[in-house]
Amino acid sequence: MKRREFLLGTGAFAAPFLMNGCCNCFKANEKINVGVVGIGRISTTMDIPRTIKFTDQCRFTAVCDLDSKRLNHGVKFIKDQYRKLTGEANAPVRAYADYRDMMADPSIDAVMICIPDHWHALVAVEAMLAGKHIWLQKPFAQTVREGRLIAEIARRTNRVVQVGSWQRSVMQFARVCELVQNGRIGEIKQVEVGIGLDKSGGCSTPEPIPENLDYDMWLGPTDEKAPYNWTRVHQQDLTKIGNRPGWIQMAPYGWGMITNWGAHHLDIAQWGLDKDDSGPESVSGTCEWMDLSGGKLWNVHTKYDLHYSYNGGKTDVHVCDKFPMGVKFIGEKGEWLYCMRGQAKVTPSDPDVPSNGKMKPLMASKNKLLEPIVNPAKKVRTSEDHWLDWLEGIKLGDPSYTVTNAEGAQRSSSACCLGQMCMELSRGKKDGASLKWCPKKEDTCCEKARAMMKPFARGQYDLNKTLARFGVTDLKA
Hints:
The protein has helices at residues 3-10, 14-18, 41-52, 68-86, 99-103, 120-129, 144-157, 171-181, 215-219, 257-260, 262-272, 386-396, 406-425, 447-453, 463-469; strands spanning 32-37, 58-64, 94-96, 110-113, 133-136, 161-163, 188-194, 282-289, 301-310, 315-320, 326-331, 336-339, 362-364, 433-436. The chain is of the alpha/beta class. Strand 5 (133-136), helix 7 (144-157) and strand 6 form a beta-alpha-beta unit. The longest helix has 20 residues, at 406-425. It is globular, with a radius of gyration of 22 Å.
């Protein structure tokens, strides 16, 4: 009998769920035992290296992946990291093929979830109900109702949740949002958001499923009849593990740029507008879809032009592929503040306009607008390191400590999902589509949109079955 089966039989999983307080309390020198679900581009190029370096705070003890080739690579990767960081020759790392077995391991305190979007909710809910704190890569969830369930479980279990929306721990984004929230450019009339473009590609020709890949499990709650091709899933060549995976531009596993980069930049728009507990009242617009000719596989949107209405129609958040990557807040008198990624330097000698027509990481219509506010009425919560911030929140046992949290992430993720739903409704319509939204109820009067809010489910890969296994009877996905 597996440990997971034993724990389910004894009801041991229910204990963390029933506790009101944070069940993991760490002494001053005690380290957080961390497990990782998903060994791929984002975990090996970002999340593991940026967390494991805090050797005084945490210890990576386990990895999980449904591709045995990547699973073995993950074990080796962590051992190599400790060899470089501490000189440890053979750090102990446990390997799990099934995430549920990892969650049943009581020695693991926290889990980094670095997997395709259509798997986020199943693993996040399982982890928190098993008593683990979580790092959840963005986007927070694949559907609105999945996200609401994750946020509710986070609240009930009192787990520390950090989301991979790490721009909230970057100076220029925090600076601009604090200035906007404190009225530096007055009432915000428009926010321009640029999130880049995906390109057509992939291959629809069926291929043999690699013996090292549990493809049925990879498909999870989605259609089990989808034929395998590595461009639907991920690279089998480990030398290219850092390449962008195919699923990221392949519905229903990802929705494309609207949830990929949208989860970053729409999150900043929400932050600046002080909407971490709310959202837009409607979205309208249109898009173009990928070219599927010649056996191409990837099928998400390409060009897009969306308008989100906030504050009773007083604020228009315009998301368009024609805008430069980043977020631009425009005030009632036309003054603006802009932020994007990169090394931002704010000095009196900075020019008002960028050189060579390129935008800089931190800009304004006038340089003086960028001056920080002394004793601001509204102080945004930020951090110097997004990954350390998560570990510190766990050490404190305080879910309110981290710069991102489940509720704010759900709101940002919902805005992204609304854009995707609007684009889907606009198919074949010259003038696009519009969708009303009630942020308080997280609902719409459009039945076609409501259908797109539901979680995916198939067989054992069903959030309601996960809830039932843990004895949660008053929630439904």
